[in-house]
Amino acid sequence: MAPGTAEFGFELLVCRWAESAWPPGSHEDTDESGAASPPARAREDAVLVARQLGTQERRWDTVVLECDPAGLAARARFGERELDSDLLHVVRNAPEEWAWYRDALPHPGYPWRYVRAAVHRAAGRGVVEKRRRGNRIEIRRVAPYPDWLRRIVAIENKPDLDASAARALSAQLEHDVETGLADEVWVATEATGDRIEPALLEDLPVDVGIVALSFDGGDDAASPAGPHVRTDASVEWYPTEVTPPDADRDEERRRRRLELAERAYGRGWRSYHETMRPDCRHFELRRVGRALVPHCAAKERSQTAAECAGSCPDFEPEPPAWRTRGWPIEGGPGKGIKRLLAGRREWIRDREREQERTDERE
């Protein structure tokens, strides 16, 4: 079972499962005896996972980026932070040799003064080179912007997909299928153990895949290493690829997908520490299998992001004594939690880059 009763805890475990075992069937889970599950499919793409991303019209619970490993490694040349739409316009079109930025970049559809501001920001971050010749600003690329994104997979997380939840979700999934911004759409639900999972009986679009997840173990604080949790993923219905036929010629779709991918690259799925209060004395991280999920000692359960705010009646700042070592530069436990989650996010990128280098040597 997912920690707590909220969808938030289930969402975090889905993200961790996708990060380690996407696509479904690509990973050989082992149980406590070490026995392997049925043969796995090969995983050829590098995978990045983010959560709560989308457009003004639609926000997805979980976003899986299937990336070209070499392209993903080349993307690292432009730093860990995301490139917003204005920076992407500059970086993607920056010339190999010095040129006036108005000659080098296509017309953006808005005043050039905003492009000039983006050029200064890009140069300040080191993602392009800039120089002034007379009264003109010239730019040159530091490296070609790579074609690192292959596919976008959208996942809606509904641990308890009852009839009312399915009705509300159906219209949203229809929108995802029709717009085709993502290449594949899934619904992740918690396995019930029934011979036929209830999700199969709901009125969901036929193009949407259904995966039933079981997180055996639970939220157990007794063990320092956390509980032994095995994640079982059963594909109840395989999705249909919803990529439009003219996707290769649709530059607007490509631009929107790159902007979405850049936000996922910069934020990841562990960024909940930016919207919650790890500086509260009751905020903890609990290990559930291979995932670290937030836990509130005051509520004695996994809290939601909406609950964990300065307006929470149980909020208490960390005592000053907790922050004496290294304060105020390094901070207390709350700062440590932020560093830990940021480090785990970067570890995934490093792992994918190292795998690419290993493949090249072989």
From TrEMBL:
<protein>
    <submittedName>
        <fullName>DUF5787 family protein</fullName>
    </submittedName>
</protein>
<dbReference type="Pfam" id="PF19100">
    <property type="entry name" value="DUF5787"/>
</dbReference>
<dbReference type="InterPro" id="IPR043901">
    <property type="entry name" value="DUF5787"/>
</dbReference>
